[in-house]
Amino acid sequence: CPAFEVIEDRGADYKKLDVRELVAENSWNGGIVLGAFSPKWPDLEAIEGVVELNGARIDTGHGRDVLGHPFEPLAWLATHLARRGSMLRRGDVVLTGSMAPTRFPVPGDRFRFTLAGLGDVSADFTA
């Protein structure tokens, strides 16, 4: 499904950012916004993702921009969990990575993310 992550950076100083802080903060996940799940899967390596802000196209990317293919981070996660004696379970939702740069909404912004052939998801950021 098309999705995006809502970042909560807790007022981080980006000039002093380090990877240990990102890991400790769970990469600042503040939540996720999910579109409708689709039973059909187009070519996920070639799929185009489009980000719109207030109706204007601002970013595009492709599935291959996520470590070569969106299944690469998924395979890594499954392997990592297996090594620890765990596994992914039916119903787990995994965001595999971003096709576009992080954006910082201001009150009143409306973001929409469309995956060609799969659908779209949007969120309004009200004051």
What is the strand tally?
Answer: 6
Write the element-wise H/E pattern from the N-terminal end onward: EHEEEHEE
| Distance between the amino and carboxyl termini | 28 Å
Helix fraction?
A: 10-25%
> What is the overall shape?
globular
Number of helices: 2
Give a verbal description of the structure.
The chain is an alpha+beta fold and 127 residues long. It is built from 2 helices and 6 strands. The strands form 2 sheets. A 4-stranded antiparallel beta sheet has the order 4-3-5-6, with no helix packed on it. Strands 1-2 form a two-stranded antiparallel ribbon. A hairpin with a 3-residue loop joins strand 5 (110-115) and strand 6 (119-124). It is globular and about 45 Å long. It starts with a strand and ends with a strand.
Layout of helices and strands, plus pairs?
Layout: E1 3-7, H1 19-24, E2 29-34, E3 48-53, E4 56-62, H2 71-83, E5 110-115, E6 119-124
Antiparallel strand pairs: 1-2, 3-4, 3-5, 5-6
Task: Give the gist of this structure.
The chain has 127 residues and is α+β, with helices and mostly antiparallel strands. 15% of the residues lie in helices and 28% in strands.
